[in-house]
Design goal:
The longest helix is centred in the last third of the chain and has 24 residues, at about 30-55. The protein has helices at about 5-25, 30-55. Helix 1 (about 5-25) runs antiparallel to helix 2 (about 30-55). The protein is mainly α and about 55 residues long.
Length: about 55
């Protein structure tokens, strides 16, 4: 069974890939830049949270 941490990690990776692809092909319009920045910020926060909680 998937743990919440695994799901968050996979969602974070997916968001990062989608943002990278959209940015690469310049699909993100200036109006959407703020939304993209918020999504990236959320992805970064999730990633930081996962790194703190992951066993070392």
């Amino acid at each position: 069974m998937l743990r919440k941490r695994d799901v968050f990690w996979q969602l974070t990776q997916l968001i990062n890939v989608v943002l990278a692809e959209l940015t690469e092909y310049e699909i993100i319009l200036p109006l959407h830049t703020a939304m993209a920045a918020r999504l990236q910020n959320t992805a970064n926060q999730n990633s930081a949270m996962l790194q703190k909680s992951s066993p070392r």
